Amino acid sequence: MSTFPIKQEIIDQFKEELGIKNIAYATIRQIVGLVNKLEQKYQVQFIRTEMGVPGLPANPIGPNAEIKALNEGVASAYPPIEGIATLKNELSKFASLFLNINISPEGCIPTVGSMQGAFVMFLVANRRDANKTKTLFIDPGFPVQKRQLAVLGMPYESFDLYNYRGEKLKAKLEEFLQKGDISTILYSNPNNPSWVCFTEKELKIIGDMANKYDVIILEDLAYFGMDFRENFGQPGRPPYQPTVAHYTTNYVLLFSGSKIFSYAGQRIGALMISDALFHKRYPDLTRVFNTDRFGLTILQEGLYTASAGTSHSAQFGFAAMLKAVNNGEMDFVSEIKTYGDRAKIMKQHFLNNGFHIVYNKDEDRDLADGFYFTIAYNNMKGDELLNNLIKFGISAITLDTTGSTRTEGLRICVSQTGEERFDDLKERLQLFKKAYPTI
Asked: What is the CATH number of the domain that holds 348?
């Protein structure tokens, strides 16, 4: 007898135990907990698409460099807050070779993942001007970044990019920026959860707006190089990863080792701050901090009070992988391209069973296959769709939690679904379609 469909009363029981009042707004961790309970009760393995965790092993270059550093005694020494010199130099080289921009090692600062980078940037950048206290999110986006602002007691605005691609983006940004209270703009590129990628036209619009309104752009590059329509993994050769840094000096790049190097467990990332911004003075910073210099405030006040630096050994591992990439000895894009291959197959299984893709275009270009994609089905709202997919052993998250206006949609992450699970996905989607026929 088939486990599916799972009884609704069991799902409801576990939701209550986990404090899930509305599954549309359940956190990723709550969905993880719910699925864990169902897997344990029914002794069945779900198709896990709810959490964006690496699904590939880390390249041995990183762990081996960490082991060497630990054996040489770095565990007993505090790391420099600004980062070890080798890592800072490799980050600077990486920016030159893969983004075609120049950032001094001084402005390349390791952080405890890009999440800490965002937190510290909010902490400092949103206090540089007493009249500019808000962050503007170009959504959909990573929900935790909004929670960071809530923890800091800082306001924010947001809008969904869905209806504002291309030239329409300019007027929409101006609508917010002309009020004069926006200090920072944050977006991810490629985007979590929709996987849209900004075009050069859109990045230029964002850069021009940053210059016009003196706004700092926080460009989240957690999925660096993972728009697999192009090969952004060739050091010193075009095409380069697109970035707003080509159009403004008011930028900070949030960089991460979690996905491109499958190094999530070591919580290592970096801030990459433009030279002009790093050295800029903002008198209003002294309302809270001991200096008016932006870069020094990040280091001496932001990072120092948050964590007093980043894991010493992890910095050596990160530096070693970056060095290998910079020297052309490690092709990080080839190592992670399997995510795009998985997405292509998984998307087709959903499409074959009556689903459609919610965010499907970058202006007039079909979206890339990558780490995430978004789905919807019939006239179901996201909460109903997620609940019904769970009955058939498939997990996801709703787009409601990401700032998206597309309340019918779910985010699918491909990282935990290897080739060996594709037949399971196909069979479960067929069962789902039989239970909920297309209109």
From this structure: 3.90.1150.100
pTM greater than 0.85: yes
Is 70 among the domain residues? no
Q: Show which of 280, 302, 326 is a domain's final residue.
A: 326
CATH number assigned to the domain comprising residue 256: 3.40.640.10
Please give the tally of structural domains in the chain: 2
| 351 and 296 in a common domain | no
Instruction: Walk along the chain (439 residues) and give the pLDDT tens digit of each residue.
Output: 478 999 999 999 999 999 999 999 999 999 999 999 999 999 999 999 999 899 999 999 999 999 999 999 999 999 999 999 999 999 999 999 999 999 999 999 999 999 999 999 999 999 999 999 999 999 999 999 999 999 999 999 999 999 999 999 999 999 999 999 999 999 999 999 999 999 999 999 999 999 999 999 999 999 999 999 999 999 999 999 999 999 999 999 999 999 999 999 999 999 999 999 999 999 999 999 999 999 999 999 999 999 999 999 999 999 999 999 999 999 999 999 999 999 999 999 999 999 999 999 999 999 999 999 999 999 999 999 999 999 999 999 999 999 999 999 999 999 999 999 999 999 999 999 999 998 7
Give the count of alpha carbons within 13 A of 138, CB side only: 30
Q: Which residues contact 166 (CB under 8 A, 6 or more apart)?
A: 199, 201, 202, 363
Decide if 192 contacts 141 (C-beta within 8 A).
yes
